[in-house]
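Milestone M4 deliverable, item 7.
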Amino acid sequence: MPLIVLARLALSLASLIVLGMGGYLLWSWYDGYWLADRFGQTHHIREAWRLWLGLGMLAWSLCGRWIVPVLVARPDTDPTRPERSAGQEITSPTGSNLYVEMHGPQDAPTVILTHGWGLDSSIWFYLRRALSQRFRVIVWDLPGLGRSKPATGAIDLSHFARDLQTILSLAGDRPAVLVGHSIGGMTIQTLIRDHPQVMARQVAGIVLVNTTYTNPLETMIFSPLARALRWPLLEPMFRLTIWLQPLAWLSAWQSYLSGAAHLANRLGFARHVTRSQLEQTTLLATRNPPAVQARGNLAMFRWEADGALQAITVPALILTGDADIVTEPRASQTLAQATPGGQLETIAQANHMGFLERPDLYNAQISAFCELHLREPAVPPYASKSAASL
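Output delivered:
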């Protein structure tokens, strides 16, 4: 999500400036200055305002994360949590070790959830809980994020698609529904483009959630500006992040502690976001390695769906938020028009993280789609008559 990354960079710099100014004020208070009175005696002067202002800046730099969500997000009625259950690691043909969790009845039809970039599979808290009452739900971490470990050079969409094909094999001989948010939706499209044979026997339907069909810079808000900044700013910035990961990580954590990172991630939500939703999104984006996230963003800049959309031969549900600024609704409209039989649904007052912010609306659409396309086939009348005659 380049837009959020740029906001985090700007606000991280501001957060470091506040921290630096706080440190300088505390040092200047301690150092003070000497002043001679009219009798020639010198006095060591320490100005109290420097102490209190410096302490305030330092406190904000280290504890702002407790204050910012209260100011910019709603109280929770159903908090989300980055919880994990008993998972397993499987090795993909790409060489990556993939962390996988399975929820719900073992013998139920399968739904596979692929998360967005910079996050991990725990972000599916609401949807996983809703679907696992009826379906076998498989969630997994993309390589380099969460608990999945990438092979060397495996941070790109083609590798992710091969990894998803490996996850799909866990569904056995029954077709599954694939659900993908943001880069997760791009991964599904890449799987269809690179491995079209899976559509015939392994996929019952796909759900593309707040995603795009091309380089995300082309379909985000202020797209002309984003494209203009790609080569002079974004590409060098991401490459510098890869080379200087330890410093980038320290800066990310300081931004998280100050609440500056929460302000940046707030851009991915509309007005319904709650404090736990903002906290979880920010925490995941902070603790995932900056170099991995930078490589993924560079990979997205070089990605196109190409002929994947026309190759979709299964039902497709395309969900978008009307307030999405990271992948604008026009991207989903193009997806729906280019996909044979694509069904577009626009969720009101939802931004890029709408599936987390408005789970009731997104979950209802996805659950209904899965119920329709994963239900058991009815027994033909002639079969029941034949069985009765035996």
